[in-house]
Predict the 3D structure of the following.
Amino acid sequence: MFRILTVMIVFCPIVLAGTSLSLFAAENRVTGFSAGDTLTIRSAAARMDELPDIVHFDGGFELAAQDWSLSSDQATLYGKLDDPETVILSGSPAIIRVVTMSGGEAATIHGEANQIIYQRSNNSIRLQGNATIARNEHSMSGGQIEYDIERDHLSAGGEGGVQIEVIPDPPE
């Protein structure tokens, strides 16, 4: 049975929603919670580490908010639950889904990898092992993808190289 932890928070940049890549030219990136947003975490098990402000989740980890979600087999949150410094997801695969607004229309960003690391201290996301990130019809895949949210900078590489697929919009 899943244990449910619901936290009302003002701001929580676990958001990984900043993954709207330059390649995708998103106009509006989701970068944090608004007052009154709800963060829901589900997992088969949760345990606090011996060190302060570290929580480990095992078995069917899911984190959901209004415009984004995370899922993985395991997750570790470093920092306060309502204000984490680092989030590490691992699974087969670990998944990020984010809904953003671009040109007045909703667009979904979808990322998958064997491991996903979000580091708030340097505002970056790293997808490692069979990494893929996509927005609408555009996608990028590689052994590793790194995204600097603040600079809106993307780099990819690793085993197997990089593949980018862009489907142009039809002429009007």
Remarks:
- The radius of gyration is 16 Å.
